[in-house]
Amino acid sequence: MSSSSGESSRNKFEEEIREIKEIEKRDSVFTSKQQIDRLLKPGSTYLNLNPFEVLQVDHTTKIESIKKQYKRLSILVHPDKNPEDDRAQKAFEIVNKAWKILENDVTRNKCLDVYSEAKQRTDLMIIEKRKKLKKDGKSEEIPEDNPEKYDHAVYVTVMKLFADMERKRQQQDVRDMEERKRKREQEIEEEEMKEMQKEYAKNFEESREARVSSWQKFQSSNSGKKKKKKTASSSFLPPKVKAETRN
What we know:
This protein is mainly alpha-helical. The protein is 77% helix and 0% strand. It is built from 9 helices and no strands. It has helices at 3-26, 32-40, 44-47, 51-55, 63-76, 88-103, 105-135, 147-206, 208-234. Helix 2 (32-40) crosses helix 6 (88-103), helix 5 (63-76) runs antiparallel to helix 6 (88-103) and helix 7 crosses helix 8 (147-206). The longest helix is centred in the last third of the chain and has 60 residues, at 147-206.
């Protein structure tokens, strides 16, 4: 991919994120319908990868405050509160999943690591931008000098990193499934082989008596034939030779 097409793709992505954020600001009022719409609108699957985004809290928010926000949102989108909206159940599940991630110290810290990495990448990107501008003899002033623009750049990188995490998770799930399938096929093959060996041993044992009996009959038959042959040979008498007579 050329640098120009990559830049165009990045700009398009950032524009989409900006539009989504504007919609969120407009729909920030806590009503059941607005929250269900927010959680299930086009593009929400991508945004819902970030549990902080789902619960509409900053990543620096204390866990106690996050829990309060979760309870507020879960009540708003609960199916019992929205019996006429079939989407409520799915929205409720999304909110619950986000809370389960954040209430656990291990998974919450992994999410916080995403923000730290996003900030590091953004800072590195800014350094590279300034280097290029300096090399080209241009002003080193960049849009990210504006705090709002900087925060947006970090936000975009955060979303990309969460998307990368999800893609890797799905790839790992596929590998795990294929490994489980391979092991199961191997187990079935080994079980079938054991059954074949077991069946062979059983049949061999069951046919042993018949084989012994058949061999004995064969031996007995051969022995009888030999005796008959011997008897026939001993009863054979050569013809008598007549004495010669002289005239």
